[in-house]
Design a protein that fits this description.
alpha+beta, Arc Repressor Mutant, subunit A, Dna Ligase, domain 1, three-stranded mixed β-sheet, two-stranded antiparallel ribbon, 5 helices
Length: 136
């Protein structure tokens, strides 16, 4: 039996706040933004709604290794970049995850059901800050 969830104000607001984003906020960041519009909302309510949006396929949950779950409105396969200095998670454009999936299947690994590609390094903003500090 399928569970029917009503469309709450909180869930509608979270959807609107996430639409078109590329910054992959964590739950506490989303909670702060939701509170600006609904001051009485609880962190538990935001977590519950984020979980429901992930379960319904409207958001993707990412665990980039910083101890936090980040959320992404782009649910189609794509790659991410994690800055090891500031922790920012961003999309990597033009990374061909479908070709990686096909390569894995051609190699005899088996049927690939999903692809998760993450790059780590130092983001452009952090590199610029480093250059300014070093006087370059």
């Amino acid at each position: 039996m399928e569970i029917v969830r009503r469309n709450s104000r909180q869930r509608t607001l979270i959807r609107a706040l996430m639409r078109g984003r590329t910054d992959h906020p964590d739950a506490s960041q989303i909670y702060g933004e939701v509170r600006e519009h609904l001051p009485s909302v609880s962190l538990a309510t935001v977590y519950r709604n984020l979980t429901q949006l992930v379960e319904s396929g409207e958001l993707a949950a990412l665990e980039p290794g910083d101890g936090k779950t980040h959320f992404d409105p782009t649910v189609a396969p794509h790659a991410h970049f994690l800055c090891t200095r500031c922790g920012r998670v961003s999309d990597v454009k033009d990374a061909d995850t479908q070709e990686l999936k096909a390569q894995a299947e051609r190699s005899g690994a088996g049927r690939v059901d999903s692809v998760s590609v993450s790059f780590t390094g130092i983001c452009e903003d952090c590199l610029k800050k480093t250059q300014k500090i070093s006087g370059q």
